Amino acid sequence: MILLETEALTRAYGGVIAVNKVDFTVEGGLITGLIGPNGAGKTTLFNNITGLDTPSSGKVFFNQKNITGYPAHSICRMGIARTFQNIRLFKELTVVENVMIGRHFKTGKSETKGRFLNAINSYIHLKAEEEQIYERASDWFDFFDLGSMKNELAKNLPYGRQRELEIARALATDPKLLFLDEPAAGMNPQETDHLMATIRKIRDLGVTIVLIEHDMKLVMNICDTITVLNYGQKLAQGTPHQIKRDPSVIEAYLGKEEE
Amino acid sequence: MFTPVFSCYRTVQFSYEGESIVGIAEFFQHLMNGLTLGGIYALIALGYTMVYGILKFINFAHGDVLMVGAYVGLFLFDLLRGSSPLGLWTITSFFLAMIISMAFSALLGMFIERVAYKPLRKATRLAPLLSAIGVSFILSNSAAWMFGTHSRKFNYPFDNTPLHLGEVVITPHQVLILVVSLAMMIILKLFIDRTRMGKAMRATSLDQGTAMLMGINVNRIISLTFAIGSALAAVGGILIALDFKVYATMGTMTGLKAFVAAVVGGIGNISGAMFGGILLGLLETFGVAIFGIPTGLKDTIAFGVLIIILLVKPEGLFGKVEKEKV
Amino acid sequence: MFNFFLLILIYSGIYALMALGQNIITGYGGMLSLTQAGFFAIGSYATAILTTRFGWSFWGTLPVAFLLSALFGLLIGLPTLRLKGDYLAIATLGFGEIVRNVLNNWDSLTNGPMGIQKIPMPILFGYTINPYKKYAFLFMIFIFVVIAYLLFQRLARSRMGRALTAVREDEIAAQAMGINITKYKVSAFILGASVAGIAGSLQATFTLSVTPGTYTFMVSVMVLCMVVLGGMGNFKASILGAFIIQFISYFPQLTGLSGSIPAQFQQILFGLILVVMMIWRPQGILGRETRRYGSASGKSKGGAQ
Questions:
Q1: Is residue C63 in some structural domain?
Q2: Which of B176, B258, B270, C28 could make an S-S bridge to B45, C-beta 3.0–4.6 Å?
Q3: List of residues 6+ apart from B203 with CB closer than 8 A
Q4: ipTM tops the 0.95 cut
Q5: In angstroms, what separates the C-alpha of B272 from chain A's closest C-alpha?
Q6: Residue C282's closest chain B neighbor by CA?
Q7: What CA–CA distance (Å, rounded) separates B32 from C93?
Q8: Is C86's pLDDT higher than 90?
């Protein structure tokens, strides 16, 4: 069942076409990889899907609903979450607070009408609400075993843990679809293995995952299907096995064979 | 700020057939006044825009540097000219005073940067802004303390009897202002576009990190930027003082308006600042003269323009939209 | 002399309200706004005009001051908050100046530069709170400050406070986590504005007259100074900052040295405070409030960072 798809999605910056009529499909329940050389347009594609950037043309469908051009916070609320290439944690907030942010929009949905009344309502039931948020958030930092560091400032965490925290925060929003932008960047092989296991665990929880990565071992091992981008265009899509043998992919990464 | 030499008419007389000579002359009069005012705004706006281009930071204290420049110029001029009658020496001493004031303001600008902004380069976005507000306060109030809160007038370096060109009246001052501001802008443009230093400045404003890797001494470039901007501000201040007066808080309002000019043109863009300055000068002059905005509300024209441009095209007329890389 | 001391306390209280508002906007929201003078003026004039022209009681004008300032907060906030912080500062400064200019020129409504005099004293249950007999007035101000403090403190500890902090730290990440950044920024703005409006109302009924000349951008800078000095992101600190700055303001008169110290001295000092604090101790005297989460949601304040 197709969870997300883009239809001829294009993003041009003046003369530079970063994403060129891309039809990207994501099947529910699978781990999809998105690979390509640097500058291929992968993060741009992410940004245009998640609402942080607006496509020049084309459409995005999530659960058959057209979400093109929706603002980022609405898209998050619909069930798409993401992490960032250059870790964007709230540095001066603690680990707990970072994850609690993920729960932010999940609360305050009381029976009272109108958002202003909602605000007043949550103001009054402050303590109860905070406890509720904390509870759900703690599920996630237990998942990543971050409990011992919960009152540490996010900026004080070691790099690998910061990446995990970012994922925890994204998961706290209860997404159906999770975009991970180079989660293994800067990790050593052990950390990468641990990450692989974590990603599989997340998938087992029912979250569909899309993964931008350069670490081929990780990608080939864990992805059910891979889409390859180059110069903003979709080169190929298929299983890892197929992609490994696709001549255009090989050329994109390694260059053309000398005749 | 400037009162046109003619009294303000509330209606424009010319029609599209272009018959009424009085109307056209009046239009030209306002045009002259607007350009003069605009030239000054442009000079000051350049300081804002150059600093923003390199540091992505609005130097709130820039307006007060123009005030210092004006005072220094005033005192130097009085000192140098002594009691000479209007003539060659008074003109020469005027320009001498101006140049020395430019140098002094340049040093002041560099000093402020070194002491109040450089330590904050790595701090939060807010920190240098707050510091700049503080510097502005220190400067304007120190001036008020030292020189009193009353205003002073520049003595004219030459005979300022108005010249009549047909129905239009211009004062030699206005000619001086136009010539000087135009000359300064041309010199700056040539400097930025043609010299090595200028190229270094452009490189630094585009990408500081890479500029450093290319061997450009970024700290020196930053100091140079402040120096040039402050020197130009001093000129602006002196020109204002010539035609109007000097007082301790003159920097704040004029500085603010020059900032609006820089934003309108596209902050970070040098041609934009020049254009924006002239445009604002014209808008202010025509706004009062033609659209009958009361002089009391003249200052609000600038803010009105600011709000409009921020709503419609915040990157300015010549600016580029800066997208944050996600 | 003691009377004078009480006067300073009263002004501290009024400014403390504005500082609390500024803290929400700048300390929590991270937005450098210089608007408080404008909202202060709006609140003052609302009270002044309604009481003198239309015979309203002071207490009736309070909600009007509140709502009117809130409305302007919304009107100014919406368009300007899309902008980067640097532009916001100038735009908000401009707003304050426009307000002052308008008040100065709209003679029919505001009596122009002469201002409005003979504002009646507030009456509570038949008891006149006479500004000249400072105690009652001081007590009233005290109540306002305490209420404002409690309300804002609670807010800061709620998810709104956390959301604002997230927006301040990283707008893009906050959006991606489902936070509507515009909504939060504008809300912060409105809150800051309305409390300044109330402060203005109190000011009008204390000084018993209002003139446009009082509401210069100096006021906004002073309020900013208070927040910076005390510590951004800390409401207690804002109140502390208010007291310190007011005492510095009145120091010459208090110590009888007003002959020898020039009027600009305090303002130079404020400028120095801003520069020095930013370079040497940007977190202010008390620092930002931090929270620790123990078991469940046990909250206690951490120290300065």
A1: yes
A2: B258
A3: B210, B211, B214, B216
A4: no
A5: 20
A6: B127
A7: 30
A8: no
What's the gap in Å between the CA of A122 and the closest CA on chain B?
31
The CA distance from C8 to C6, in Å, is 5
Query: Could you give the angle at the alpha carbon of C90 between the alpha carbons of C199 and B181, nearest 5°?
Result: 145
Indicate the residue of B56, B131, B307 with minimum beta-carbon distance to C278.
B131
Tokens of B324: 């944050």
Structural tokens at position C136 = 């009652």
CB interface of B with A, residues 306-325, below 8 Å:
323
3-state secondary structure of A56: coil
Residues 6+ apart with CB under 8 A from B324: C172
Q: Is C229 within a domain?
A: no
Judged against a pLDDT cut of 80, whether residue A116 lies above it is answered with no
Q: Could you read off the pLDDT of B248-265 as tens digits, one per residue? A: 888 888 888 898 899 898
Please determine, for residue C302, whether its predicted confidence score (pLDDT) is greater than 70.
Answer: no
Q: Chain A: residue nearest C182 by CA? A: A73
Per residue in A125-151, pLDDT (tens digit) is 777 788 888 888 888 878 888 878 888
How are beta strands A80-82 and A177-181 bridged, if at all? parallel
Which residues span the domain enclosing C92?
2-217
Instruction: List the subunits that have 3+ CB pairs under 8 angstroms with B.
Output: A, C
What's the distance, Cα to Cα, between the start and end of chain C in Å?
Answer: 39
Q: Which of A187-196, B24-33, B121-130, C284-293 has the lowest mean pLDDT?
A: C284-293
Domains of chain B and any CATH numbers = 24-312 (1.10.3470)
∠ CA B302-B262-B301 to the nearest 5 degrees?
Answer: 5
- Collect all residues of chain A within an 8 Å Cβ-Cβ radius of residue B326: 43, 47, 52-53, 84-85
Considering its fold, how many domains does chain C have in total?
A: 1
Asked if the structure places residue C78 within a domain, the reply is yes
Name the interface residues of C facing A (CB cutoff 8 Å): 154-155, 157-160, 162-163, 165-166, 169-170, 172-181, 288, 290-293, 296-297, 305
| Spatial distance between the Cα atoms of C207 and C47, rounded to a whole number of angstroms | 12
